[in-house]
Amino acid sequence: MIESVNFTHFHDMFKKYRPDNFSYYGLQVLFDYIEELENCTGEQIELDCIAICCEYSESTPEEIIEYYSLDSEEYDPEDIEKIVEYLEDHTSVCGVTEDNTIVYQLF
Question: Which helix (H) or strand (E) covers residue 46, if one does?
Fold first, then answer.
């Protein structure tokens, strides 16, 4: 049995169980991505905050450069598009938030 979830419920569940994993804008991007994924695949996705936090992340461009040991001369934190392209070559990118953080599937 799967319950339909709107953004408010999605947001509230993350703030209750995993309050430090995603910003408000990161949760908006992630919610939209998961809804689109459900629409494309025709399969419902269970709202399991812990599992989602193990699979997806929200990071600043600087953090991504550091986490993945990217060449700082080649990757400028101000060039978000280039960092998103790097991530898209390795994983799924959910989107970029209003605060210029990137929500993506971990790899």
Answer: none
